[in-house]
Fold:
Amino acid sequence: MVPGPADRLALVEGARLLVEAMEVRHLAAIFAATPDVVVSNLLRPPGEAAEPAGDVLSRLATASQFGWDKAQGGDLAYIPSGGLFTGAVGAWLASAIHAFTGAAFEAPALVAMEESVLRWVADTLGMPGDAEGILLSGGSLANQTAIVCAREHGRVGPTSRVYLTPRAHHSVRKGLRLSGIPDAEARSMPADSRGRIDVPALRRQLAQDCAEGAAPWMLVAVAGDTDTGAVDPLPELADIATQYHAWFHVDAAYGGFFTLTGRGTERLRGIERADSVTVDAHKSLFLPYGIGGLIVKHPGALVRAHAADGAYLRDVEDLDGLPHYFGRGPENTRPFRGLLAWLPLHLHGVAAFRMTLDRMLDLAIEAAGSLRSIPGIEVPRDPELSITLFRATDGDEATERIVGALNNSGRFHVSSTTIDDRVTIRLAFLHPRTSRELLDDLVALVKRTQAG
Ligand SMILES: Cc1ncc(COP(=O)(O)O)c(C=O)c1O
Structure:
């Protein structure tokens, strides 16, 4: 069961060859249809007998040739994830080291590394030095963890109300449901002309609800909505949350790390006034999937919402200044996620992330300018962060033709949404491999498609 050194080396060498094969795939078409037979073969369960590493890895190599290749710069669909190679090495090392980082006393030095990442994130967001955080699997779990903190802090019962930004990510509704909050307690607010929360409408709703005896306990804003990248008016919302003693949560899963840049800091001004902020390092830090985080301004709030005990925990030792993450969040056993971020942040330096995010903001502006100049194309709004919206003036069918042309080109993956009841293409720039040349090629393809 325990492999000897030679077996380990063979496996590592096999994995190295597979990574090299993936680099070749990244130069091929961005999409490859998966033959049914490949799927049916891979649905087979494992057998009793051991299989040679080469055979096993070759099945993985085959499987990873199909579907959309998320490691290419042409991936502009949904919210891209760069999948930095150094992050993948961090993930591999974290599982190879195999330390339990759920409790500080088991691995104080490794927990210190994870804490250093969380403190850096909190500082980047402008949160105070005693803010606390937890790294989780992604934005969804971070949003739910924030909801649980807010619920413990301020929800009194069925008369309580939570107010949601109009394009709240679906994980917010899911998180409310999983946290036992009935749908009837949640109010989705109307949008202003830029798709952000309509502040006067929110004020009217709050006044009316309070007059009817309801108790606001949470306000959820978004800093970079998934569809358009719009940022809610955070300073005004912070004022409102303070006035109503409601927990102010900002879902910055996509937009949060833009605070590393000057323009992002300006656009996300007010985020530092939030009670909690969701960030997603597998989005805007380009790391491999599986690392998001929640920063909470109030020391002890995470523990109050999550602490649990058991007789078998009697030997757990507390250490000054280092947390037990199992008591700060929903997970007990968890991967050493801190290393996924710690390794790339130290290897590349923070400036590299800042420059890449700045480049993403530039690409979004350049894309808007170039697309606007194509006859028959309109850009309904200027990009607020790194998402550019455009559509055909001729209507939805013409817009869908462009989606088809881009997605069948072998070079791009784009996705669409609806804005003002019109199908609208979104180009989400968040991949370090997306270049200016690639954007020029995309614009040229849109132009050719429009010209028929
Ligand atoms: C604004 C926002 N919040 C939350 C999420 C959910 O994050 P995850 O997919 O990491 O769970 C997303 C995902 O795209 C998002 O864009």
Observations:
- Residues 79, 138-140, 143, 169, 171, 222, 226, 251, 253-254, 280, 292 surround pyridoxal-5'-phosphate (CB under 6 Å).
- The two ends are 62 Å apart (CA to CA).
